[in-house]
Every structure is written in structure tokens, then in C-alpha cells.
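Question (not urgent): is this output format expected?
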Amino acid sequence: MNIHQKNIIVYILLVILPFLLGTGYFYHDLLKKDTQIRKEKAEWIGTIHQQSWDEFITQTDTSLDIVSLSAKINSGFPQKNEPLLRDIQQRDSRYGGLYLLDSAGIKLVGSNFLPDSSLLANKDYIKELIQTKDTVISNHPEYISNHQEIIGLASPVLDNKGELSAILVAYLRIGYLKNIMKLVTPDAKLYIANADQEPILKINIDKDSKLTGTDWLVKPINRLPWTIHVQLPAPDYSTIIKTLIKNLILLLIISHVFYLLIKYVLLKRQAEKERLQYEAQKLELVGTLAASTAHEIRNPLTGIKGLLQLLGEKYKDANDQYYFQVIDTELQRINEIASEFLILGKPTAQNREIIDMSAIVSELQPLIISEGNSYSSVCSWEVPSEPIRIEGIKDQIKQVLLNLSKNSFESMKSGGTLTIRLYKTEKEAKLEIADTGEGIQKKDLEKIFHPFYTSKDTGTGLGLVICKRIIESMGGNISIESTLSVGTTVFISLPLLC
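Got this back:
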């Protein structure tokens, strides 16, 4: 999978997928909130009309109570109630008619003419009142002579013994009720249903509208066996879409910022990976070149050393011997550099063995102390008496320890303390080499393991590279921490022998 394909996958996961999921989530959430708002509005409309109807029935009862009182007073002369009935109807436009009936439901007097008054006795709500002696409202609308649609309300007139003496009937104009309801909520769609859930009056509802379902809220009328059905307002899709777009834009911004951050991290990791690969390739190339060069250097060195020995035997003069000794010393230095090249090229050339780190450090103590004395430095040791066994190459471990110790002494030009600490954890052997020297600058810490980098005038820049190569070839780790004018500590960890 190439980088372009990886970028597409990351973009899909961090931008496209969250955008699609966010679209669904936000849209569902906005619809849910909009539904809740519409329900609250419908609830408010239903409550308003519920209270309006309760007040309307209370006012109607009050009017009928006045007529009932008059009917009791004029029980022997029902015609005397007619002016009162007419006056109430003229004053209150809710009434399409007011009538006083006898206990059998036959009309006695009324506010206006009733063509067939005998029909009242056959009305279901009149019959129900005669049986229950309680106020009853008709279950269905009716039409009177002037084509007005009305609802009949019957109220009993009881004598002192509680017996039914007369019946009051009020025709309530549906048109008046509709106007009152429209005045309160002009745009609301609602209807009043009777006890059989049949619509009695409709407000702003088309003939073909569906009157059931989840879009309707139902509120009972407290003083009547009727219910108010309020249709929820239509969803506000314009506001929903606008809010959805705002949320999605914000989501896109956040997801793209997150994508750029992840992209930056991935690019940084990729750059680090490529850098490490480049360093490994460079080190491998340097190692191969160094090994081949070392072999080529050692071949003529062998001949030169042989000829030098012959010349030394031939020329015994003191001055000549001094020159031969200097030449031999420099040849030895060349040979040591060639040996370092060989280790750099093949750090695992020798067979591994089980070695005791405690024993190795103890063996090197005299050499390190002697080296420290030449630099006016003292040594401090923290080495356990029990064995700490690892698998590696003894000579190479010694080389690492001597090399690092020498570096520490060289950094303490005015003397100091070298501390060597050896201990083990559950899975690793730990070796720490700390000095109190001049320290290493932070910018140089990143370069100290690079081939041929050195801060010494006579250094090759391969010492720490070789140390790292040796430690890593044994499955270990090496790192350095340093503070200017405080000192440097080298941390080495090697896997314990299981």
C-alpha cells in the first residue's frame, strides 16, 4: 500500500466517515428536538382550549342557574320565563336558543320559535337527563331552522324534594365556538371529539385530513365527556436544515483539523522511519566499506612490520631504534583503527557465550582505576556480588566498558568522579557509567552515534558507533543523558539469560 492510498484511507476514516455518521446523528437529534418543541406547542394549545372550554361551560351553567331559579319561582306560570330566555339569548351570542321543558321533555316556553317541539322529548340527551337528573350535553351536532349548527345542553330544574320539575335546554352555536377557538389560536389545527371519538367541530382541518396518528395530541375537557385533539405543527425543516449545515460545517472543520494533526504525526513518524532506515543503510555501507578497507590496510601493514623488524635487527644505533619504535607505535595505532573498522563491519563475527557481567566489571576495575589515576579522577563502584549472566561476547563487552570509561575520563579534564553501577531488573541487566565532566550539548547528543562524528582532536568518530553496534548486536540498548557542567551518564541494558 503506497502513501497515496494510506492518505485516502486516513481521510475516509477521519473525515468522510465522521461526516456521514455526524449527518445522521445531528439530523436525528434535530428532528427529535423539533418534535419535542412541536409537542410542547401542541400541549400549550390544548391546555389553552381546555381552560377555555372549562370557562365556557362554567359561564353557561351560571346562565342556566339564573333561568333555573326563575323557573322555580314561576313554576305555575312558565310563560313568565320567556322574556328572560329571550334576553339571555340576545345578550349572549353563544346561544342559538333557550327552552324550558316540563319533566317529560315537552316544550313549555322558549327564546325563539321551535317548529316541532315534541322532538326534544325524543332526544337521547333529554332521555338521559330524565333518568340521571344531571346536566347532559348532546353527543352529536344538530341543525335548527335557520341552518345553524348547534350542540344541545340540557340542565335539570329540581324542586325542593330533589325531584325533576322542569328541564332547561340551551342550543350552543358551533359557529360561535369555532370563532372563539380561532380567535385564541388562529393557525392551529384541531377538533373536538365526543364520547364516541367522533368529530363534533373542526378548526382549520381539511375534509381529507387524517384525524388519527402520532401527529395528534389529545386533551380531555374536564367538565364534558369530550376531548380536544390538536395536530402538532408541521416540522420546521428550514431551521433544521440551517442548524444541520452549521453543525456539519463545524464537524468538518474539527475533523479536518484532527486529520491534519494525525497527518502531521504520521508524516513525522514516516520521516523518522526513513531517517532511521537511511542511518541504518549508511551505517551498513560504512561498515562494509570499513571492513573491506581494514583488510586492505592490514595486508601491507604485515609486510611493513616484517621489514621494520629486519631493519631493527640490522641498525642497532640508539637513534635508529628510537625511530623504529615511533614507527612501530604508529603502525600499532593504524592496526587498532583497522580493528575498529572490522568490528564496525562485522560486530557479531565471534561466537557468543554465557558471560557474567559482575565478573567482567570486577576484572576491569584495576585497568579503569589506573586509567583514572592518569586523569586525576577517582572511581566509584556499585557492583553486586551475585552473578548477572547474559549471552554475548566477553571481549566486546570489555571493549565497550573501557571505551566508555576512557571517554568519561577525557571529559573530566580537571579530575572528577567516575561511577559505574551494575544491577538487574526482572528481565534485563543494567549498566550505568556516569561522570562529572563538562557534559555534552543537547544539539550534539543527537549526533554522537553518527559515524565519524567526534568532538576530539584525534578521535576517529567510531568509538560510540562501535559500542552501539556491539550492544544492539546482543539485543540490548544504549542511550546517553548529559547536562552541561554537570556530567554525562551512559545507560546500557542487555537481556538477562533465561
